[in-house]
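Attaching the record inline, Q. Sequence:
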Amino acid sequence: MITTSQKKKEMSKNTMKAIQLHEFGGPEVLRYEEASTPELNLGEVLVRVHAIGINPPDWYLRDGYKALPLEWQPQVAFPAILGTDISGVIEAVADDVKDFSIGDEVYSMVRFPSGMFGDSKAYAEYVSVPAAEVALKPTGIDHVHAAGAPMSLLTAWQFMIELGHNEPNPLQPNMHEPVPLEGKTVLVNGAAGGVGHFAVQIAKLKGAHVIAVASGKHELLLRELGADEFIDYTKNYPEDIAHDIDLVIDALGGPTTGRFLRTLKRGGALFPVFPLGFSGANDAEKLGVTVSTTQVRSSGAQLTEVGRLLDDGTIRVVLDSTYPLADARKAHERAARGHIQGKIVLTVA
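Structure, as predicted:
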């Protein structure tokens, strides 16, 4: 019988296939090649990966985080492995981990934000994960759908329901505080994307009247997910139509998020998922509007909580497309074309 310690030694000698980055650049810099299988440290499990969810931080890192202020841009040790979101099967367990066993099907957002500069290493056949960041995969969905959930669903959940941690907010001096949703009118911008399609479902689940903003091709899906109203931004500016909103979740964010200030009632709130470039703080204060953001953080406990909603179909993971791990470049090219409906996922044979 192979012990955990023997298994650890055996795996540490092996190599695996991974997508590695040797320089910053476009999708063409992603290389499918041999890499060392990660070593298993105390407090960790080793996961044999079945599927990997793609998220914006993946292409931000690939590009060198050019959107960040210069002082925030990373010093990355090459070769680097991108990615955070995985679903797979536990291959080995450190001796001090008691809550998981070899053979458990699990999913995770790995080491985020601590590993956002290349230490999460999810675009690979094997990933070592802190046990506190792991949750049992919902049995009602497959690995591909499970891999599409962690970062996007945790982002929506931590913005809208429960922050789930007491870490200082690097993006603003005060802690982010979700607001009650029952009976409120919630507008979700970028509603068809990864975070957006979860935000629509969460708002509806918690009793809100939901207005979804996306291009017209996404209307049917978003109404199926719970949107009460739909605004096609290719035909109308949402800030010209929507008024007296209680909460705006701007899943796109950035410099244009300030346009939603005039849609909000006094006492309302604007939550930009990507806050960089927002310059309307003075306007928000004059209008009596709260602008707040946060940094999504890994949490096995929260993945367990939302996993129940994924398990019974209360929340759906919508897939835009899937690609084999070897074709990560094509997946990033798909992401660069935009207008993503749900999630892009890599599959591992």
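The radius of gyration is 20 Å. The longest strand covers residues 44-53.

More tomorrow.
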